[in-house]
Amino acid sequence: MTTTTPNVAGAVETSDRVASHLHPEGSFAVDDHAVPTGLEEVWRFTPLKRLRGLHKDAPFGGGTITLDAVLPEGVTVSEVPADDAVVGSSGYVPADRISARAWQAAETVTVIKIAKEAVVADAAVITHTGSSTETATAGHAVIVAEPFSKATIVLRFEGSATVADVIEIVVGEGAQLTVVSVQDWADDAVHHTSQHALVGRDSTLRHVAISFGGDLVRMNASVAYESTGGEAELLGLYFADAGQHLEHRLFVDHNAPKSRSNVDYKGALQGQGAHAVWIGDVLIRKAAEGIETYESNKNLVLTDGCRADAVPNLEIETGEIAGAGHAATTGRFDDEQLFYLRSRGIDEAEARRLVVHGFFADIIRKIGIPAVEDKLMQAVEAELAINIGLPAAS
C-alpha cells in the first residue's frame, strides 16, 4: 500500500488543534488509528460487529460499484490518480481508521467540477449502484465549485454494497454550492462515509444528508473555513426502520472570523430495533470572532422498540461571537396535532401522514430542486407504508 501526502491547503495547523474526544487528531497513516473497541467516545454508539471488518483489516476489492452521471452544462466528471494535486485540497485529514483505510485504498479519485462563474440551473446527479456485499469497496471523490459558480450536486447511493468512502468538497470564493447525499441503499448495505468541506471567502455551502436505506450507515460530515464570510448550512433527514442503524456525526470548525453555520437534522424511527444516532459538535476557535452558529436535531418516534441518541455539543474559545446555540429533542406524535386533524374528519392514518410530512417538509423544500424534492417526499411516503399501517399515498 502506498501512502500519499495530499495538498492540505486551508487545513488548520496541527499546533492550532484543540484537544477533544469529539474530534481526535487525524492522520493519513492507517496504523496511527487504533482498531476501535467500542469503548471510545466516537465509536460507543456504533455496532462494530455489523461493519463487516471495515474498522479492522477487511480487504478492499473492486468492481462492485457502478457509477452513472447525468451532467448539465458547466459540470464535468473525471477520474484522476490518487496523487493528483486536487486530492486533499479540502484540507481533510482522516480522523478514524476506516476513513484512513478508504483514503489509502482508493487507487483513483472521482473529480466533479463546476466551472468558474457557471450558473447551473439543473442538478447534476451521480448515482452509485452496488451489486454485492461480499467484497468491500473503497471510494474517494472531490467536488470542486470554482469561484463564483452556482450548482447543485446530487450523490445517490443504492443497491447492495459494503462501502467506505471519502468525499471532499471545495467551495471557491463567492461560489454557491448545494451537495445532496442520498443513502437509499438496499437493506443489506453497509456504508461508512466521511464528507468534508472547505468553505471559501464569501461562499455558501448547503450540505444535505438523506439516509433511508442500508443495514448500517455512518456519516461523518465536517466543515472548515478557508477565509472570512463563509456560510455553511448542514441539513439532514433520516428514516430508520426495524433493525436499521443510521448514524450522523457533524463537526463544524469555526476557524475563521465572521463565518456562519446552521445545522438542522430531523429523523423518524419505526420498528423494533430501529436506532438513530446524531452527534453534533461546533468548535469556535479563538480566532473566530463575530461568528454565528446554531445546531438542532429533532427525532420523531413512530412505534415502540426504537432508540434515538442525540448529543449536541458546543466548544467555545472566544466570547466575541454574534451568537451560538444548540438543541435536541426526541418525542412521539403530537397528540394535539392529531386531535386537531381528526376533529376535522381526517382519519388517523392520514392524520399521522400529514404530521410526518410537516415534520420533514421544511428541510426537503430547502433543497431548491423540485424534481429532487418530489422524489424525497415519495421516499417518505414509501417509508410510512412500512411497519405502522400507513398506506402509501395515492
From TrEMBL:
Superkingdom of this protein's organism: Bacteria
Every SUF system FeS cluster assembly SufBD core domain range: 131-359
Pfam families the record matches: SUFBD_core
GO biological process, one term: iron-sulfur cluster assembly
InterPro entries: Fe-S_cluster_assembly_SufBD, SUF_FeS_clus_asmbl_SufBD_core, SUF_FeS_clus_asmbl_SufBD_sf, SUF_FeS_clus_asmbl_SufD
NCBIfam families found in the cross-reference section: sufD (TIGR01981)
Family note: Belongs to the iron-sulfur cluster assembly SufBD family.
Listed name of the protein: Fe-S cluster assembly protein SufD
Organism: Microlunatus parietis
